[in-house]
Amino acid sequence: MTPSLPASSLYLGMLLLCATSGAQAAFVERYEGTAKDLDGKLVYREIHEVTYESAPPSGRVLSARTRYVNPDGTVRAELDSEFTGPSFLPAYTFKDHKLGVLEGVRLEAGSSSLAVFHQGKSKKIDFQPDWVGGQGFHYFSRASLEKIAGGEKRLLEFLIPSRLENFSFQIRKGEESQTEKRRPDQRQIDVVLEVQNWILRLFAPKIIATYDMDSRRLLRYLGPSNIQTDKGDVQTVRIDYQYAP
């Protein structure tokens, strides 16, 4: 026999349904990335969960959670981002459980300054609304694909927590990029991010992110990883992303 609800509970349920029926439900996107070194060896997997106001690419991103998983299945690191302020500058915390790295960005509501922190040290920086940080690069690129494909080059101020500073980067279309159809069902573009400081450029390889022009999904990433080697060195990885049908 199916149990019945008390009338008071049924009434409360109807009120909640009426209150929420007019609100737009959030959309959650889940996808994974497989990171390999330049010799093709598996380094880690990324598990992404992103919450939007509504379905992407038009819906505004609200939060993003990434787990970095070792080949043996243990969680190596975590990255949590909250997009409550500027569109492409989230507040975020990155934790590497193996090396004990803790860094990120803190934002204050209504303030024109932020705190960037790394390993117990922090610095307060005045910022502009168009600055970029953390996973904000991905969402800036995705929002700008047509302009980049058209040849637009732009300088971005990008926050680097490990250096407690912001640096100028240029974002542009890759020379190898071909926006004509590589397959009958897909057009791709390579988005390049390169630091403008020539000294840093000697040690920081450029980032190449490949996007599908139609779905605006990130397909591949080639560049420095935020997961360091066991010795604490920066490593270059290629990450291929897989999405559920």
Question: What does this molecule look like?
Answer:
The protein is mainly β and 245 residues long. It has one domain. The protein contains four helices and 16 strands. The protein has helices spanning 7-21, 136-143, 145-149, 198-203; strands at residues 27-36, 42-52, 61-69, 75-82, 91-96, 101-107, 113-118, 121-126, 132-133, 154-160, 165-173, 181-183, 186-195, 207-212, 218-224, 236-243. It has a 16-stranded mixed sheet that branches. Mean pLDDT is 86; it is low at 1-23 and 177-181.
The percentage helix is 10-25%
Order of helices and strands: HEEEEEEEEEHHEEEEHEEE
The major pleated sheet works out as: 16 strands, mixed
Distance between the termini: 39 Å
Rounded mean pLDDT score: 86
Give the structural class. Answer: mainly beta
Instruction: Determine the number of helices (DSSP H or I, runs of at least 4 residues).
Output: 4
Poorly predicted runs of 5 or more residues: 1-23, 177-181
Tell me the quaternary state.
single chain
Overall geometric form: globular
Count of folded domains:
1
Tell me briefly what this model is:
It contains four helices and 16 strands. The chain is mainly β and 245 residues long.
Write the layout of secondary structure elements.
Blueprint: H1 7-21, E1 27-36, E2 42-52, E3 61-69, E4 75-82, E5 91-96, E6 101-107, E7 113-118, E8 121-126, E9 132-133, H2 136-143, H3 145-149, E10 154-160, E11 165-173, E12 181-183, E13 186-195, H4 198-203, E14 207-212, E15 218-224, E16 236-243
Parallel strand pairs: 9-10
Antiparallel strand pairs: 1-2, 1-16, 2-3, 3-4, 4-5, 5-6, 6-7, 7-8, 10-11, 11-13, 12-13, 13-14, 14-15, 15-16
